[in-house]
Amino acid sequence: MNTKKKGIIFLWVSIFIIFTSLTFFIIGCNSSYLVTDIFRRIALAILILACILFAYSIFLIVRFRFSKSLKKAKMLVISILLGLYVLGCSSFLFILYGPYDTFRTWLITTAMATMNHQYYCKWFYSDEQINAVLNENYVAEGTESTDPSLITFDKTEGYANIYERQILEHEEDALYKIIRFKVNDCDAYLAAVYDASKISVGVSKYLGVGGQYVYDMAKQQNAVLAINGGGFYDPNYSSTGGNPLGVTIKDGEVITDETYSSNNGGIIGFNWSNQLVLLRNADGNEALDAGIRDAVTMGPFLIVNGNMADIKGNGGWGYAARTAIGQRADGIVLMLVVDSNEFRTKGASIKDLAEIMERYGAVNAANLDGGTSSAMVENGKLINDPIDSALRHKTRGIPTMFKVVP
């Protein structure tokens, strides 16, 4: 083989190996979850050998004249592909470890908010790096529970702003109105329900065994409007959606009464006076003593007694499809669903939800289950666009929902 041709081939091979081993070495320096210590040492050794090969290839190219035996077209194609690979490796490392923390914050807060996909960020970041990001993005909810007397049901006179107008302008005798807008370039749906007495909790007919799609539950239970409800146990993201988290109450009867161990949120429901009540660290009997008639369990609480939660950064839950419920002082209930994008990299943060609820006048508001579960159904039809983990435009079975039944 011509010496110059050999030098060019060695150059290509050395560049490929350098950037491959460099990528693994840098990842291994930041986290041993994906690249173990021994693998990092091997990557460093290969990196050193590749640098020697690179230097030797430069020596061969400079020393000998170019041979036409290596066709220019082939050389150009390989060089372009190698250049793209180098650019890809460099961009990947820059996004992960560069001076701009947007992607780093998104990945860590989104992954760590899940129970079963935290390894996505542990592949690339150490526990110290993860904790540093989480310490800058969290919800400090406090210990206050709701004061139902703040929901007075007094009719709001006039429009304080455009958001008041959107809520209060509606057809005569309308039970609800859906307002559509964008959040981070994703579709959002806010339903204003004018009679809170028509809202209750619906549960899957297979509760304890499996969940149901919201639109199936809505049809079977004669709901004209419905959103997904509380969280549920979902190990390995493979459950049937049949076991709700914490306390579930329907028509004044405790359906489930499990301990909710999270520091965020608690019981979210309506009392017999049709006021939205948020309770922390309460069991089913305590909820009944507080007058709760229908409730689910989830969180975090976004607004309590007119005061927004102390939210640092994006709130620590990343960006995803979201669902929330709130109530204004005049009794109007706000049901909010925000879609994610096709690649599940956008959607709403916890801070976004709180700001939207505050903007539309919520006195109390709480986050409900999100992600693939986020769904709004009107007259039996899904009107938002949920996306599952396989990037299919499809929701999943869940155990509970908030429904509006005329």
Walk me through this protein's architecture.
The structure is a single chain. The protein has 406 residues and is of the alpha+beta class. The chain has three domains: 3-99; 100-136, no CATH class; 141-404, no CATH class. Helix content is 33%, strand content 23%. It has helices at residues 3-30, 37-63, 72-97, 102-112, 119-122, 127-134, 162-168, 214-220, 284-289, 350-359; strands at 138-140, 176-183, 186-193, 199-203, 225-228, 247-250, 253-257, 266-271, 276-279, 292-298, 301-304, 307-308, 310-312, 322-328, 333-338, 362-367, 376-378, 381-382, 400-404. The chain has a seven-stranded antiparallel β-sheet, covered by helices on one side. Helix 1 (3-30) packs antiparallel against helix 2 and helix 1 runs parallel beside helix 3 (72-97). The longest helix is centred in the N-terminal third of the chain and has 28 residues, at 3-30. The mean pLDDT is 90.
Present the secondary structure layout:
Elements: H1 3-30, H2 37-63, H3 72-97, H4 102-112, H5 119-122, H6 127-134, E1 138-140, H7 162-168, E2 176-183, E3 186-193, E4 199-203, H8 214-220, E5 225-228, E6 247-250, E7 253-257, E8 266-271, E9 276-279, H9 284-289, E10 292-298, E11 301-304, E12 307-308, E13 310-312, E14 322-328, E15 333-338, H10 350-359, E16 362-367, E17 376-378, E18 381-382, E19 400-404
Antiparallel strand pairs: 1-13, 2-3, 3-15, 4-19, 5-17, 5-19, 6-7, 8-9, 8-10, 11-12, 11-16, 14-15, 14-16, 17-18
